[in-house]
Design goal:
Elements (H helix, E strand, L loop, with lengths): L8 H7 L12 E2 L2 H10 L12 E5 L5 H8 L4 E6 L2 H13 L4 E5 L7 H5 L7 E6 L5 H9 L10 E7 H8 L9 H9 E9 L4 E2 L6 E8 L9 H13 L5 H4 L7 H7 L13 H12 L1
Parallel strand pairs: 2-3, 2-5, 3-4, 5-6
Antiparallel strand pairs: 1-8, 6-9, 7-9
Helix pairs in contact: 2-3, 9-12, 11-12
């Protein structure tokens, strides 16, 4: 038994026959020391303590991170899980923390998070999750492209494959730099907190993972609309080996005038532009 009075995660996995399903992108964490570190890394992020916050979690599985969040004092955890077997396992945690954990069955990509969370009583919301590998990037894009900004959450603490984490924080002129880098850094401050070795999971994946901390930041008055920036960035990186004077033709307008207006050399390639360059380019295209 652990300090929360609940059994070891490996016992939970065995009891509920939680053989990980590849179709659900499942790799279960079983180390409460590690999940405790993840929970504590979110402390103070976005100017909010964990004890004062409501946590939204996706894919809790057998509950390693859920338990760590509650053990570290989260005010309330709202979790979304697709696997009915895992929902059964979560009932033990609900019993140990009465009124502190709500679990909903469904696809997180289709969920209205604010509707699930309900009345926050003025408390901030932190998204903290060991995201299923097969939907991690799609969920991040969903949360970074909400229509109202600043968003409904104060911070994101998320586990990704390390390759995805490197793309989120990548700098221009690097191999990892691309659409996800710009999408994340345009609206937030991003950093990799630590790596997570494959042996921390059951079953062990073939890749290293990492924890990424993301804190939303206010948009500047001169920045382009999010949807316009996305459109320009998509066109530029969809043919990233080509010069911008060619790749941007996909936007349907002759690119040379707005490349000139943004003071960007037409022979540059997408990976050479900074986020500020893309913002100028998007504004010029929009105008």
């Amino acid at each position: 038994m652990y300090e929360d009075g609940l059994p070891p995660l490996r016992d939970v996995i065995s009891r509920y026959e939680l053989n990980a399903k590849k179709s659900l992108g499942q790799n279960f964490l079983t180390d409460l020391n590690l999940t405790g570190k993840i929970a504590r890394s979110a402390e103070g992020m976005g100017g909010c303590s964990l004890k004062d916050s409501i946590v939204y979690e996706v894919g809790p599985g057998p509950g390693a991170l859920t338990r760590a969040l509650l053990m570290n004092g989260a005010h309330r955890v709202v979790a979304v899980e697709m696997d009915p077997r895992c929902i059964e396992a979560q009932k033990e945690i609900q019993a140990a923390y009465p009124g502190k954990l709500d679990v909903f069955e469904g696809d997180a990509l289709l969920m209205d998070e604010r509707d699930l969370i309900g009345d926050t009583e003025g408390r901030p919301v932190k998204i903290i999750a060991n995201l299923p590998y097969n939907v991690g990037t799609a969920l991040l894009v969903k949360w970074l492209t909400v229509s109202d900004w600043l968003p409904w959450y104060s911070s994101l603490t998320l586990m990704f494959q390390k390759e995805v984490g490197q793309r989120i924080i990548a700098e221009p002129r690097s191999k990892a730099y691309g659409r996800l880098s710009i999408l994340g850094q345009f609206r937030a401050d991003t950093r990799i907190m630590c790596d997570v070795p494959a042996r921390a999971f059951t079953p062990a994946p073939k890749v290293t993972s990492c924890i990424v901390n993301i804190i939303p930041k206010a948009e500047q008055a001169h920045t382009p609309k999010q949807e316009i920036l996305e459109k320009v960035v998509y066109a530029a990186f969809n043919q990233r080996r080509k010069m911008l004077r060619t790749s941007l033709k996909a936007l349907g307008k002759a690119p040379l005038p707005y490349l000139k207006a943004a003071n960007i050399t037409p022979t540059c390639r997408a990976e050479e532009l900074t986020i500020e360059d893309f913002c100028r380019l998007a504004k010029a295209y929009e105008q």
